[in-house]
Amino acid sequence: MSADLDSLRLPTAAARAREASTGIARSTASRWLLLVAALVVLATIAVGSLFIGSGTISAAEVWRALSQGGDDTNAILVTGFRLPRMLLAIGVGAALGLAGAMMQAVTRNPLADPGILGVNAGAYIAVVLAVAIAGTADLSSYVWWSFAGAGLASVIVYVIGSRGRAGATPVRLVLAGVALSAALQGVTFAITIRNPDIFDKIRFWQAGSLQNRQMDVFLGVLPFLIVGVVLALVVSRSLNAVALGDDLATSLGTKVLRTRVLSVVAITLLCGSATAAAGPIAFLGLMSPYLARAIVGPDQRWVLPFTMVFAPIIFLLSDLVGRVAVPGEMPVGIVTAFVGAPLLIVLIRRSKAQGL
Length: 356
Hints:
mainly alpha
């Protein structure tokens, strides 16, 4: 237990200095070059996801459906399911990656993640209650319940983690998030076990899946994703100061409270909309910021844009693996868990996990 707490402590000045010098790309030109290269990779994988699927549709048929449309079965499958699925994977991936990067910056902890801090669990139980109490059956209407759950969970974690003289330290916030997440998951599990009909309705959403998502789901969450991304980019410069500590950030002229409030609003919008659309996705918000910091160091002005590109790449690749590796498809949430869990163990064991 003490070893785990050691990995959650605030980074020292020396640790931050070491982290600042660990980025692979240290010049602005090299960072722009790598960002453009990552965007090319993302575009290539996105296009590939339109041509690769569980069905047997030839490349010529896919191109015809995309360029000419049509109302035959293949055209409907490509434009009605594969295209919205690709767009949703990019949007959900970028949202969760961005939310994870912001959480790590706000809490000054590289192990922070929407799942670890209880935000996903809050959104999850809200959707379960929507089905159990309100009888909600439309996937596009989950988004409002998901927002409410994610927002309420964020407030509860902050209130619990900020009690006492020490205030909202990273350790307290993470422990409060883990405790709340465990409690909410227990309640959710109890509700679904006692109501098999509810479990049957949400079992694919519960595992984290993009299957059968159509354009209405993507368009329903798109405005919230855009607002969340804009807020995140607006506070990116202030997050650099917050990462240095509240006292030093205040002395540098940063309005810490305003930065935290805007960050929480952005995280709620991003996590709520992503969870409503695809279900609870674990570890994506942990993996992509880690890779971004390995390339550009701790500067949030670069970490956030790189995370917005890396997370959809990981998410799209996981979705492709789930489509072709198992007959009948494996939910993308399970694939990301297979990839993310070993990375979490590596992060905890490495000394660099002590600093952001």
